[in-house]
Amino acid sequence: MSAGHEEGIEKVLGNSVLLTKLDEIIGWGRKYSFFLYPFVTACCGMEFMSLAGPRYDLDRFGSALPRFSPRQADLLMVVGTISHKQAPILVKVYNQMTEPKWVFSFGVCATSGGFYDNYATVQGIDTLIPVDVYVPGCPPRPEMVIDGLLRLQQKVAKERWSDWPRGEAPVTKK
Amino acid sequence: MSVLVKKLITDTNTVFNMSEYIPVLIMLLLGAGTAAGILVATTFIGPKKEFADKMEPFECGEHPIVSPKLRFSVKFYLVAIFFVIFDIEVVFLYPWAVLFKRLGIFGFIEMMLFIVILAIGLIYVWKRGALEWE
Q: What is the reported pTM?
């Protein structure tokens, strides 16, 4: 992120080794402790269940506990088709999550609307909220989701202080 | 440091013999220190952002339509209290039932006394109309 956008401790420490090392430690901690908010709206939910279950076992990657309150979650798993009726709810849940927060687009419907190329369906959740990882597929294989999660972990590990806070979704109604 | 601790231990030994509780004290201090440390650390390193939409109560993604601070009838309080009283009565009956033979006639009379006292209470609240909802 650009300079002049710095907040909090970064303002004091700047680009010093201390801060970059601290960023590394915090990123390392964050990437192995995702708390999911499962926003499950459609059939991809079945794949999500098998992922969370013992066979694919998301717990191995540190993202074990689904939290059903956005206050306790930091990874929004958007699993399935988002209709326009559902869109304000998704935006609100995203807004009410505490920072730092990441968004995982699970399946092709969440990513681009998929084959629901019609008036009722949101053509990709990135028209509403910022998305960190897209995993297409109808539904995606659990291995694909795990690959996406590992890539998200790599992204989180590289994040700097100035990437946060990210704030409200751009489409939030005032 | 260790001299101080030893002195503390011998001092407490002479008075209360509390030395075996020192690990508990250390455990408590460590626990409190960890909790406080995490709170302080997250205050400094956690990113925060406040805006109206986020600060609303969470209602599964919907706008809250009524205030959660509703008033409700005081009658619920009475019912809850009666429930607790007679629930406790039943809770006491279970161990009596388990030890029924060992306690014998003495236990039987004691429990009957207990039940009669509560039954008088039940008749009282009944006659006072506390069980009526109107």
A: 0.71
